[in-house]
Amino acid sequence: MRAALTLGLTLLAALAAADGLRDPFQRPARARAAAVAASAAPARPAPRRLQGVVLGARSLARIDGRLVAVGEQVAGYTLREVGPGRAVLARGGRRLVLTMDAGGGQ
After folding, report:
1. For a designed S-S bond to 52, which of 16, 62, 79, 88 qualifies (C-beta 3.0 to 4.6 A apart)?
2. Are 76 and 91 in contact, with CB atoms under 8 Å apart?
3. 3-class SS of residue 9
């Protein structure tokens, strides 16, 4: 039974290809090209160094030489929180904590 089903699906796919029909299970060429380009693009390195913080109504963090406010982005990460001696960044569900004493992320 399984072999007959496989053979039938194979023949159906071959007939569709012969008629110039597109395989409904194959991604469109544009989507394939975008996926390949995205996977080939070099990943930006995560922020590495917290150099200072300013706490207040509009907290700021100096990260890798750039002054960043909460809600702004640095190296593709969004600054979510600034605390005494630390900054919390997030990207795609990943959380990165930079501390002044360690100078790096956890």
Report:
1. 62
2. yes
3. helix
